[in-house]
Amino acid sequence: MNTTLDRFTLCRDCAAEYADPMDRRFHAEPLACEVCGPALSWHDGRQRIGGNAQALVAAVAALRDGQIVAVRVSVAIIFCAMRATSVAWRA
Q1: Domain extents for the chain?
Q2: Contact predicate 35/13, CB 8 Å
Q3: Contact 29, 15 (CB under 8 A)
């Protein structure tokens, strides 16, 4: 594989789909696979939580508590926050 994500190992199913020109995922980056796709982790300066479900629970709890959550993905950092009221934010 010759992409920016070539350092990530594909599982057998994703490798077969990636290599098959007749597959709709031919040469597609498999970012949502439960086996070889991304894994979530939580770091808040006090604790580190691994595992997709547990990390997601921690992030949602932080958002509900009024905190801002930064999500690091392969090419960017995305900042998430909950809206404090039902009134739309204005620029």
Answers
A1: 1-38, 39-91
A2: yes
A3: no
More confident residue, 73 or 52: 52
The Cα–Cα gap between 55 and 47 comes to 11
Query: Quick one: three-class SS letters along 32-54?
Result: CCCCCCCCCEEECCCCEEECHHH
Cα 42 from Cα 34, distance rounded (Å): 18
Q: What pTM does this model have?
A: 0.63
> Phi and psi for 54 in degrees, rounded to 5?
-65, -40
Q: Which of 70, 73, 69 is nearest to 31 (CA)?
A: 73
Structure tokens at 50: 């691994």
Pairing of strands 69-73, 48-50: unpaired
